[in-house]
Amino acid sequence: MCSKIILYALCVLYLEISLVSALDLTKTHISNPRVCIIGAGLAGLTSAKYLKEEGIKFVVLESTRYVGGTWRYDSRVGYDENGLPLHTSMYMHLRTNLPKPTMELRGFPLPDDIPSFPSWKIYYNYIKDYAKHFDLERDIKFLHNVILVSRVNDIWNVKYQNVLTGEEFEDEFDFVIVGTGHFSKPNMPNIPGEEKFSGSIIHSHDYRDPIRYKGRRVLVVGAGPSGMDIAIDVAYAAKTLVHSHHSKINFRTVFPKHYIRKPDVQEFNETGAIFKDGSYEDLDDVIYCTGFQYYYPFLDESCGLNLTPQSVTPLYKYMVNIYQPTMLVMGLVVRACLVVALDAQSRYATALIKGNFTLPPKEEMLEEWQKRADSIISRGRPISDIHFLAEKEDEYYAELTKESGIGRVPPVMFKIRAIDTEAKLENLYTYRNYAYTVIDNENFVRSLDNITENNSGNNL
Ligand SMILES: Cc1cc2nc3c(=O)[nH]c(=O)nc-3n(C[C@H](O)[C@H](O)[C@H](O)COP(=O)(O)OP(=O)(O)OC[C@H]3O[C@@H](n4cnc5c(N)ncnc54)[C@H](O)[C@@H]3O)c2cc1C
Ligand SMILES: *[C@@H]1O[C@H](CO)[C@@H](O)[C@H](O)[C@H]1NC(C)=O
Ligand SMILES: *[C@@H]1O[C@H](CO)[C@@H](O)[C@H](O)[C@H]1NC(C)=O
Ligand SMILES: *[C@@H]1O[C@H](CO)[C@@H](O)[C@H](O)[C@H]1NC(C)=O
Ligand SMILES: *[C@@H]1O[C@H](CO)[C@@H](O)[C@H](O)[C@H]1NC(C)=O
To answer: FRET pair for 206, CA 20 to 30 Å: which of 234, 256, 406, 439?
Structure first.
């Protein structure tokens, strides 16, 4: 009798397993799923908010004692009080580089009485208010650092450690949402002669405040968003600001007289840098604004992702791990309104986990990805471009909605970003003077911002 029941149960189990594997290799519809969210920055918080609304069980594992990730300023560099590398790359004078409407999380308006491009302080408070308003903190295990995520017997095994006690835990989950950000691990250029140079060399990850550069000769390397912003911030204090980069972007900003544009650095010697054009500058300090690396030391090979410092592949819709589609990697879009994109991705992930839609078969997802990869390679571009949205941003939002049924990110977001990009090219000193007011899903008006914030300027 007993053995008959067991035999029957085994048969059913076997049938179920073979049906599942035969019918749908990318099956993601699991009843009563358990979700592990890694990180309590914007990606983790928005995911938590939407999963909670759907009544889906989840836990957020966060290695620090704070929400907000990189938006929390910390005057220290190096390691935190628990011996973990400091995650944040925030600096004292940072104001958002995108205007208010494109920094807003769905269902939680930014206050009216703040500047169009608020300081990190205002924005960090906004994130904390979001966590409070949606009562998310109770579901966050703070001070728990994820050390290993592996795929074992068709389930996610997540190993994490209490950073205070060292105690290790292991839990099983049906889905993993990776929200650990990608502006934390410095990408160092390794220029010849660095070791000879007698001045200071830091990466923008460790840049906090221009005061220490007062009256000094400073080299800033790189012309990405951090390079441009930090060059201007340091130029207020420095005696000379040497800016070395090879950007082909047509920046039309008129810089002050003590700003000197240079090509790439050839090498350093004890007293300064020799540039590719053979010229030389005496220097006291160097700041590398050379970007960040993708860094997921906790993702085991069994996760099925190809991880390099420049790319995370292959991903469907810039976030679904194609070989293990119950893993979602958030925020891996470049040249986009990242906050708006993260919010949409969190809703897409929630709709997927909820079972509102099913993913296409693996072959189809791979094909879509491969097409994009081939086009990048055929244009002679580096594979890191695989994360660029740029002109395709609005189309991306439309696709997410079409596939998953989530509310559409209004096209006006992309339009604002386009005009703001133009304003940046025109003048990096003044683009933050504009305020953008959304009229409807397609339209906005631009005016001069008349709200100023205390202590937010670059005045020394
Ligand atoms: C200097 C700077 C300025 C920026 N300015 C803008 C801007 O103006 N506008 C804009 O839209 N975007 C801006 N960004 C981009 C910014 O990264 C996003 O706005 C957003 O904060 C990304 O959120 P996230 O949750 O993906 O990552 P993060 O904010 O980096 O959060 C990741 C979280 O994961 C935690 N974590 C990491 N590893 C582990 C682990 N192993 N276990 C547990 N927890 C872990 C971290 O402690 C952190 O709390 C800026 C970024 C930087 C660095
Ligand atoms: C570094 O190189 C420059 C240019 O060649 C030179 O003028 C300078 O004296 C050198 N510094 C040292 C310490 O040799
Ligand atoms: C899932 O579908 C239901 C029913 O249509 C809808 O109410 C819910 O908002 C959807 N969830 C998400 C995250 O899109
Ligand atoms: C600036 O101030 C005027 C008058 O007080 C107000 O009508 C206008 O809406 C303000 N502009 C913005 C962008 O807030
Ligand atoms: C700004 O500073 C002034 C004077 O120091 C103060 O009265 C005002 O309340 C401050 N405003 C904000 C938003 O902190």
So the answer is: 256
